[in-house]
Write a structure and sequence with these properties.
289 residues; Endonuclease, Chain A; 2 domains; globular; DNA binding
Length: 289
């Protein structure tokens, strides 16, 4: 724990907090309470947790979501035995739109996640720069802070990939996903490299569905199939800004059949890795922006 003075500086009167409004507000209030108990300024805390003073201030007032690695550093700094990590797990759900919260809850419980993506790289395996470029395209009028909030939310979802134990993840990517560029050649090259690394691991499989396959039943959107711990299966269909959770057995079975047909026609993980590498080696002007 740290116990530092304010170095003689006179601080402005802090904004009143409202910890009862949400888990995110409670996170900020607890952070301020422990910081003041340790007699630390935001500037001194910045040097410990490696987050800017302005960002820490916005986290305290719940104007910004904590980055994924901050809770662990706060627990270490204040000796709080995982309190901030527990609060973060609750707050993380609140930064996603309501229609996705149920999906997130099920995703966290799933032992197997299978996804078909027809246009963009699935959120669970996006790089930070790719996600940022995607959100900038989606809403050109969004502020920098709003974009960073969305990026933080996207990256926080990926924590489940390193859970103990992690879920098994199987992805089918339409060739268009790999050829449609977001963020420019360097961003896409890093994103493609990440996909290569995931093509075949103990818990991940990535397969490409080439253009030559032609049309198919899932071409209009994105489908996620989740198998829960007790064997129950649910499906989630997503369009540009909406998502639909499917729990009816007959409907989920139909989506499962469509997914299995695509998997049978997709490239093997080994051929997928070679295909992605060939795109990485191609001149950048061969990618569509």
């Amino acid at each position: 724990m740290f116990n530092w003075g304010n170095g003689g500086q006179v601080a402005a009167r802090p904004r009143e907090l409202t910890p009862d409004r949400s888990a995110r507000h409670l996170f900020g209030a607890k952070m301020r309470a422990h910081r003041e108990r340790a007699n630390m300024s935001l500037g001194q805390l910045k040097d410990v947790v490696m987050v800017s003073t302005s960002h820490l201030s916005r986290i305290e007032t719940a104007d910004a979501m904590p980055p994924p690695d901050l809770p662990r550093r706060l627990d270490a700094a204040f000796g709080t035995d995982g309190i901030f990590q527990e609060l973060y797990r609750l707050a993380r759900r609140e930064i996603h739109p309501d229609q996705f919260r149920r999906r997130m809850e099920l995703e966290a419980q799933a032992r197997l996640i299978e996804e078909y993506a027809g246009q963009i790289v699935p959120g669970l395996v996006q790089t930070e720069d790719y996600a940022r470029a995607l959100f900038e395209k989606f809403d050109p009028k969004a502020t920098l802070n709003e974009i960073e909030e969305l990026v933080t939310a996207r990256m926080s979802r990926q924590a489940l990939l390193s859970a103990d134990p992690p879920p098994d993840v199987s992805l089918i990517l339409d060739e268009a996903v790999l050829r449609r560029s977001f963020g420019g050649p360097a961003v896409m090259r890093a994103q493609l490299a990440r996909l290569v690394d995931l093509t075949l691991t103990p818990t991940t499989v990535v397969q490409v569905l080439p253009f030559e396959h032609g049309g198919h039943a899932l071409v209009g959107g994105t489908l996620t199939l989740m198998t829960l711990a007790k064997g129950a299966q649910v499906a989630y269909e997503e369009s540009i800004s909406t998502g639909t959770l499917l729990e009816d057995l007959a409907t989920v079975s139909a989506r499962r059949r469509a997914y299995d047909l695509l998997r049978a026609c997709a490239l093997s993980p080994s051929d997928t890795a070679n295909f992605i590498r060939s795109l990485m080696e191609a001149p950048s002007d061969e990618h569509h922006s």
